[in-house]
Design a protein that fits this description.
Chain lengths: 548, 140
Amino acid sequence: MALTFLRGIQLNPSMLYPSSYFARKHGVLYCCMRSAQTQTATQEKEQTKLKVSTQSQPKAVDKFLKDFEAVIGIETHVQLSTLTKAFCSCPYNYGSPPNTSVCPVCMGLPGALPVLNSKVIESAVRVGLALNCKLSLNSKFDRKQYFYPDLPKGYQISQFDIPIASGGYLDVDLPLEYGGGHRKFGITRVHMEEDAGKLLHTDGGSYSQVDLNRAGVPLLEIVSEPDMTTGIEAAEYAAELQRLVRYLGVGNGNMQEGSLRCDVNISVRPIGQLEFGTKVEIKNLNSFSSMSRAIDYEISRQVELHNQGQIDQIVQETRLWEEGAQKTVTMRKKEGLADYRYFPEPDLPGVSLTEEYVNSIRESLPELPEDKRRRYEKMGLSMQDVLFLANDINIADFFDTTTAGGADIKLAANWIMGDIAAYMKNEKVNINEIKLTPQELGELIASIKDETISGKIGKEILFELIAKGGTVKGLIKEKDLVQIVDTVEIEKMVDKVIADSPKQLEQYRGGKTKLQGYFAGQVMKESKGKANPKLLNKILLEKLNAKS
Amino acid sequence: MGSISALHYLKPTRTANGTSLFNFSKNRISQLPVAFRSYTVKSSALEPPDVPRLAETARISLNPQEIEEFAPKIRQVIDWFGQLQAVDLQSIEPAIRADTEGDNLRGDVPEKFDNREELISAVPSFEDPYIKVPKVLNKE
């Protein structure tokens, strides 16, 4: 892993644009953001080290950017993991053969009428509440008209002037590699709408291909306030939204599959200026790291244009992030605001929520990521532990069940973040796929704590439990692993080893005290690893130093 | 053409001072709490329809003769809205939707449409398994 990081740092600059201070900055971001999603305890340590070694470099960028500030807002589309589409009963499964999950409603055939899936409202209310929004007890759907081949009806059913939820906020903890810190980002609105189909462009062909399986799949569009100022803040906002929808169980939040899509609006202005600069939209961001890098690239690009007196070159447009070239390129220029000719969707009734309904959903909400992090913090865990454990709902559940059984909190965190995380990473499995149960992890921790087994043997058992399952008690018994804490028994073994190694003994007593390690190893071997190390060393020292 | 409701051809007509007649201007609306939305009655003297532009937004090609034919028809519809605009609503609480009867929701239970073949056979250009369309790269 460390090697990969280093390679990232070394290769990146050459792929980037000429100014070397940009390149370095993005190299740093690149190596750090990669791990935002797949952290392991060891990885984090490496990052911290790397951070230190590269810390001096961003200064050039800071100096370059210091007279400017960026204003960033994010529009996120969250695909809901309902079994059926928003307005028809077609099942939706990602990866189904093209055009197999279609019906007259989602293909936009004349006369077909939409009927709203109740689960869509439930999901919207859950997300709205979790984002601390005010809910509209009465809202409605509207038609947004535009012509594009992935939209069979010629309009998208969406919500326009009255979104189901608005005026909320999201709490975010920034990664420690960037100095950590807590942020609160405003949420402008959350509304329900339908997805369009998928459009594939054939290479060099004269036509495009459409798959309508995704047409009509429910989405929540979440619009943030323009509260973010850096790529890291934006990426962490998106990561927190992903966590939130996963905690809530409303969506899988998978960016690669397009279940979580972020469009970023970004402008730059001289510090002190009240009005916003011209905003540019960036699309095609399919990971948090590309988001962060795209934003920082775009900030640099816009600041450079400011500094060169070419502000007029910053135009309102949509730019695409090109992963290969590590830069943004113009996709289309906006010529005035698109006229979507919104009007209330006549085929659907209004959406009304009762206070009772909203309250019942409020009560059914799980502990949210922010609450979990604050609780873990109060339990005495370090911020690094807190962020790791709360990052993945499954890992958090595993940890919670382990500690609920009475296991030591810090030890449980260490095992999960250390050996268990390393195993999962190597074997590419998630915590629900390993055979170890939280109960047995608790049992293992307790067995080490009460000295039934040594920590070393505990580690051996752990890998067996992870890979094959079974119980700690069963394995200890089966393998006869109970730690030897009987002084007499240990003395016997020490005596034997000393008697068997007269040469080493002589050297030791001649001043080569480093040989204590050799003796300790021999005794441990003799005990088949079961001797209590503390007792062993105590007795060994006494005996070695006894007579001269 | 005739089967499509004339409503579709309406664009939010601008009044003399530049505000939108139907209050659909995104920025303004999103900043106003629902209860305070302005429902002021506007004059019934509305601008004549810009038929060529309406046709363009609906992606319909009309020849000059058709444009001439449609103009008075659309004008009639707009005038009808003008009549609606004249109704005094000062004391009426705005309604979001005309209906108030129930939500008519559906459970999240999958059901496959069982006549896919016919659906697909109605697609003008289908090359299994995709629908074939002219090459498109950019919206608008």
